[in-house]
UniProtKB/TrEMBL annotation:
Domain of life: Eukaryota
Taxonomic classification: Eukaryota, Metazoa, Chordata, Craniata, Vertebrata
Species for this entry: Callorhinchus milii (Ghost shark)
PANTHER family documented for this protein: KETIMINE REDUCTASE MU-CRYSTALLIN (PTHR13812:SF19)
Single Gene Ontology BP annotation: thyroid hormone metabolic process
GO cellular component, one term: cytoplasm
The protein's name in its UniProt record: Ketimine reductase mu-crystallin
Class of the enzyme per the UniProt entry, highest EC level: oxidoreductase
Single GO term (MF): thyroid hormone binding
Family of the protein in this entry: Belongs to the ornithine cyclodeaminase/mu-crystallin family.
Protein EC: 1.5.1.1, 1.5.1.25
Length: 340
């Protein structure tokens, strides 16, 4: 009889997954994904609208030939959730690629929060302006917190500003993170003069306008993952140099890209690999959808990295950390767990 799949819950994921291990594997995942050589199979996320309940279910499968890793992330994102329940909830399934059997089930919510923030941090590492004094975060939910945590660890910001639709949630955010945060009464006030701006809202209409953004600043646009949703106005989309995690996903899922008609300059993986330039002296915008890594990653269609690719890598990090062993594949890892 086949071994039962192992289960790795949220607390264990949170305990084991460290940014230090996650960042290099995500960089590698971004590069592999952007080679487009057929070695990473990660279709654009398939999303089912659950209109009756104002939500969506996204499925993000991915297969990576080199590491022989087969995984799927399933993520739900709902506008209205019961008090105290996260709007985003994800599960990652790992399969044995040789026969397709299920080897592991793990919480994907923490992975989604950390993977997404880590990829924004990678984009910022490559695209940042010379001066890094002020960080602006629009939104105050789970992604705002994970972005705050890694951005304040990785970069020497002197000031962090936050804006949210309600001052109460912005103040709650300021009380949850370690370190000083300036709560702003308007998005404009938060954005003016900022060197790096992060948008992590569930908005479907623009909350960030090009006229507010300092020339030469870098923007990480993380929300608005539906073809009809926006976080940015056309002025910003057209004036910034546009980088994405996946061109295919951006052209199918990002309302900011599709509706503005902005030209995509490069995938982030191409910049990390060095085949496309990082135009740091210009205003840059990284449109994240999770395709490459994340999804896979945790979400496979990753949006893997957004999708798919990223996901398996994240899982590797988890397991390596726990076992202090270098595993070469998720499946090996899953087997190991099931025997211990
Ligand atoms: N690019 C990627 O790989 C990923 C993107 N996301 C996206 O990031 C965004 C934030 O996700 P979470 O922090 O997990 O969600 P959350 O529900 O924890 O926080 C959402 C934030 O958006 C604000 N908000 C909601 N509606 C708004 C509106 N109409 N205008 C302005 N603000 C509004 C809320 O007040 C809250 O501060 C979402 O759009 C989510 O879909 C999430 C995971 C991965
Ligand atoms: O990659 C993910 O996970 C998500 N991306 C976009 C919004 C929903 C979750």
């Amino acid at each position: 009889m086949a071994d039962a799949p192992i289960f790795i819950g949220a607390a264990e994921v949170a305990d084991l997954l460290q940014y230090g291990a996650l960042l290099p594997v995500l960089e590698r995942a971004l590069v592999d994904f952007s080679k487009h050589d057929g070695m990473v199979v990660q279709p654009v996320r398939s999303t089912v609208p659950v209109d009756k309940h104002n939500g969506f279910l996204g499925v993000m499968p991915a297969y990576m030939t080199e590491s022989d890793t087969l995984a799927t992330k399933i993520v739900r994102f709902y506008h209205q959730t019961a008090f105290g329940t996260s709007s985003h909830q994800a599960t990652v399934l790992l399969f044995n690629p040789s026969d397709g059997s299920l080897r592991a089930i793990m919480d994907g919510t923490v992975i989604t929060e950390m993977r997404t923030a880590a990829v924004s941090a990678i984009a910022t590492k490559y695209l940042k302006p010379d001066r890094l004094e002020t960080l602006c975060i629009l939104g105050s939910g789970a992604q705002a917190i994970s972005h705050y945590n890694i951005f304040t660890q990785m970069f020497p910001f002197k000031q962090v500003r936050v804006w949210s639709r309600s001052r109460e949630s912005a103040e709650r955010f300021a009380g949850q993170v370690q370190g000083q945060v300036q709560v702003c009464t308007s998005a404009r006030e938060a954005v003016l003069g900022a060197d790096v701006v992060i948008t992590v809202t569930m908005a479907s209409e623009p909350v960030l306008f090009g006229e507010w953004v300092k020339p030469g600043a870098h923007v990480n646009a993380v929300g608005a993952c539906r073809p009809e949703w926006r976080e940015m106005d056309d002025a910003l989309m057209k004036n910034a140099v546009l980088y994405v995690d996946s061109k295919e996903a951006a052209l199918m899922e990002s309302g900011d890209v599709i509706l503005s008609g902005a030209d995509i300059f490069a995938e982030l993986g191409e910049v990390v690999k060095g085949t496309r330039p990082a135009l740091c002296e210009k205003t840059t915008l990284f449109k994240s959808l999770g395709k490459n890594k994340q999804e896979a990653y945790t979400m496979p269609s990753i949006q893997f990295c957004t999708a798919s690719c990223l996901f398996p890598f994240s899982t590797h990090c988890l397991i390596e950390s726990k076992q202090k062993l270098l595993w070469t594949s998720l499946i090996h890892l899953a087997h190991h767990f099931s025997r211990n």
